[in-house]
Amino acid sequence: MSRFHGPAEGHWSPLQPHDAAKLLAQVTVPWWIAGGWALDLFLGSQTRAHDDLDVGVLRRDVIGVIMHLPGWEFFEAHSHTLYRLEVGERPRPEVSSLWCRPAGTEHWALELMLDDAQGEDWVFRRSSSVRLPLHSLINRTAVGIPYLRPQIQLLYKARHPRPKDYIDFEHVLRRLSTTERAWLGDALCTVDPNHPWLTQLRN
């Protein structure tokens, strides 16, 4: 059982995407930049400040990723509370976020986001009927940094959109292809058929 650590709070000194790429260069399972940084990598420039850095991995691969980061410590972030993970301990099924930092430091460096999969399909954790082949999950920048495709990242942001999520949506919407817009629209119709973004997607 994970050990209680404290409330999910504290200062962040997040890595930049290129730092994460160096850190995870030897990881052999899929990983990708997620969150607001994923959308900025898609757009090709930084559009706003980012308070943290999200890195996505498949839940089934997380132990392998952790083993590539000796000297780091990992904490489950769940219900606004942090629980320390012991070496080799697998996160609980209800946990989708790990806060991470080098051992002995006080500032958080990155957040591991745990995504679900069945076979060769990525599965949206909020509705198992929304899925994609794993090979369709990520794009790469010109220098090879993997990032979550924008339509998928916007789907995650759509649940409880904050002001910055609306800004991200506006920036990204006009750059989405017809196929990407259609996929996001279909996924939103599945999970929230009254979502305000649907009108813009249809237009």
Walk me through what this model shows.
The protein has helices spanning 17-23, 35-43, 62-67, 150-157, 163-173, 178-191, 197-202; strands spanning 3-7, 31-34, 54-58, 72-78, 81-84, 97-102, 110-118, 121-123, 131-133, 138-140, 146-148. With 203 residues, it is an alpha+beta fold. The protein has one domain (3-149): 2-Layer Sandwich (Beta Polymerase, domain 2). Helix 2 runs antiparallel to helix 4 (150-157) and helix 4 runs parallel beside helix 6 (178-191). The chain is globular and about 50 Å long. The N and C termini lie far apart (49 Å).
Element layout with pairings:
Elements: E1 3-7, H1 17-23, E2 31-34, H2 35-43, E3 54-58, H3 62-67, E4 72-78, E5 81-84, E6 97-102, E7 110-118, E8 121-123, E9 131-133, E10 138-140, E11 146-148, H4 150-157, H5 163-173, H6 178-191, H7 197-202
Parallel strand pairs: 3-7
Antiparallel strand pairs: 1-5, 2-3, 4-5, 4-6, 6-7, 7-8, 8-9, 10-11
Helix pairs in contact: 2-4, 2-5, 4-6
